Amino acid sequence: MAEAENRMQGAEKETLTTANAMYPQIYWGLDPTSQTFCKLYIRDVLTMTEYSSATPVQGVFSYMNHPVSKVDLMGVIVRVEQRSKQFLYAIDDSTGVINCCCWNPDPLTVKQCIIPGLKEKVEETEKIQQCKEEGFNLGDLLHVRGKIKIFREQREIMASYFAIEKDPNAELNRMLEVQALHQLFYDKPFQLSNIIKNCNSHNLSLIHLTASLQDGLMKLFEESRTVQFCMADLETSEDVKSLIDQNAPEQSVALNKRTLLDQVVNQLEESGFLLKHQKKREHYRVIMNDVQLIKIVLNLLQKECAREKYAEKGCHYLHILGEIRKAEEYCSLNSNAILKCLQKLEEESRIISTTDKHFASVE
Amino acid sequence: MQAQGGLPQPGEIVFLQELCRSDTDKKSVRVIGRLTNHDFRACSAVITDVTQTYTVKVDTTLIEPFNYMRDSLVQLIGEMERLDRSGDRILRARVVSIVDGMDMNLYQRVVQAQRQYFNKRQTILHI
């Protein structure tokens, strides 16, 4: 007891300021209070405001600037209301009174116990269930955990767990625990670490830049119908330079163009738009414009569909991928790329897809 | 103190000696004491402090019949009212629970600590 008192006195020195920022929803998960059952005073549960965010989220409230949706409360039952499938207990913890909606448990279906040791446990659980169905009395100490719901403009707890505490000292321990939690944690504002604050703005803009560059590059390739290119050409090309300047006018001086282009080209390759040339380094083929590859895929599919095995259902695209990889030129083709080829052929009505992964030839 | 529509007021924790001395009426309080002199026909009882110096009369109309054991420690939630005839103050109890086994020393210290904390909180959080 003395230890706890000392700890609380020490923590008081570190408490709060009035200016607490409300963070957008994307950061709420970083605060443990968003996921745990918070042990708050009932007065606070009733007076907390909804967490202000750009898109209002129902059921999330803010204590200081911690996002809170689930609470853990303990109080004396001061009112019991019995309904057909639930009990409504009003609990009082000396700071406030709130309703708790406690659903009647489903009847236990396990009646026969094969293991004798388990029989006692089941009987015990049955007894507890029976008590829950009969309802608790005024004056009992109820421990409840659940989400905060607003029903007819009043706040209620939708209990996911509730139980009677028989030990009167439980309430005293609880009062100590809640006070300590508040002083050590809840009363301190939720702050994002500086790393996140700094990292955020820089990384986001980089992601946007690469995304827009990817789109721009693909458009360029489509328009100019390039089948093959090399990285050096890309760097020196006027069109590409203007593209970068368009998308990041402030940063074009500081940014290393080569690394940026490398990143963009890698991402395009992974998504299946480009293919690395096997013999020449830093050369890439644009798959959409590669007529040769598309012809090869079509011929392969026709040949395979002629076989009895694939006549009805068609070939799985990975099977085609396996066959194509046998050729030296296309051994690094990835699954996204082959899907894109097959989809292009389907658009030209030369093949059809029998399922979302199987394709069959038409001619 | 907050109370939503239809729900009773929360019972603020007070010590028995404070209840005797203070004059405030119609406030919901929660108090612990030993039950002596229970007359269930007249629906009245007397609770005594642990030090046996302070007593408060209790009107038990709303909570009869309850499991009564002589001299057991009870926790009552109710409102203080003033009887017109005798001028005595009486606690009209609406919730009772037997709390035999509660550590009264710990109770004193916890309630004091909680009050200190709430006072500090009010000044800082403006609640």
From TrEMBL, chain A:
<dbReference type="InterPro" id="IPR012340">
    <property type="entry name" value="NA-bd_OB-fold"/>
</dbReference>
<keyword id="KW-0779">Telomere</keyword>
<keyword id="KW-0539">Nucleus</keyword>
<feature type="domain" description="CST complex subunit Stn1 N-terminal">
    <location>
        <begin position="43"/>
        <end position="115"/>
    </location>
</feature>
<dbReference type="Pfam" id="PF09170">
    <property type="entry name" value="STN1_2"/>
</dbReference>
<dbReference type="GO" id="GO:0005634">
    <property type="term" value="C:nucleus"/>
</dbReference>
<dbReference type="InterPro" id="IPR018856">
    <property type="entry name" value="Stn1_N"/>
</dbReference>
<feature type="domain" description="Stn1 C-terminal">
    <location>
        <begin position="209"/>
        <end position="360"/>
    </location>
</feature>
<dbReference type="InterPro" id="IPR036388">
    <property type="entry name" value="WH-like_DNA-bd_sf"/>
</dbReference>
<dbReference type="GO" id="GO:0003677">
    <property type="term" value="F:DNA binding"/>
</dbReference>
<keyword id="KW-0238">DNA-binding</keyword>
<keyword id="KW-0158">Chromosome</keyword>
<dbReference type="InterPro" id="IPR015253">
    <property type="entry name" value="CST_STN1_C"/>
</dbReference>
<dbReference type="GO" id="GO:0000781">
    <property type="term" value="C:chromosome, telomeric region"/>
</dbReference>
<dbReference type="Pfam" id="PF10451">
    <property type="entry name" value="Stn1"/>
</dbReference>
<dbReference type="InterPro" id="IPR040260">
    <property type="entry name" value="RFA2-like"/>
</dbReference>
<protein>
    <recommendedName>
        <fullName>CST complex subunit STN1</fullName>
    </recommendedName>
</protein>
TrEMBL record, chain B:
<dbReference type="Pfam" id="PF15490">
    <property type="entry name" value="Ten1_2"/>
</dbReference>
<dbReference type="GO" id="GO:0010521">
    <property type="term" value="F:telomerase inhibitor activity"/>
</dbReference>
<dbReference type="GO" id="GO:1990879">
    <property type="term" value="C:CST complex"/>
</dbReference>
<dbReference type="GO" id="GO:0042162">
    <property type="term" value="F:telomeric DNA binding"/>
</dbReference>
<dbReference type="InterPro" id="IPR029146">
    <property type="entry name" value="Ten1_animal_plant"/>
</dbReference>
<dbReference type="GO" id="GO:0003697">
    <property type="term" value="F:single-stranded DNA binding"/>
</dbReference>
<dbReference type="InterPro" id="IPR012340">
    <property type="entry name" value="NA-bd_OB-fold"/>
</dbReference>
<protein>
    <submittedName>
        <fullName>CST complex subunit TEN1</fullName>
    </submittedName>
</protein>
<dbReference type="GO" id="GO:0032211">
    <property type="term" value="P:negative regulation of telomere maintenance via telomerase"/>
</dbReference>
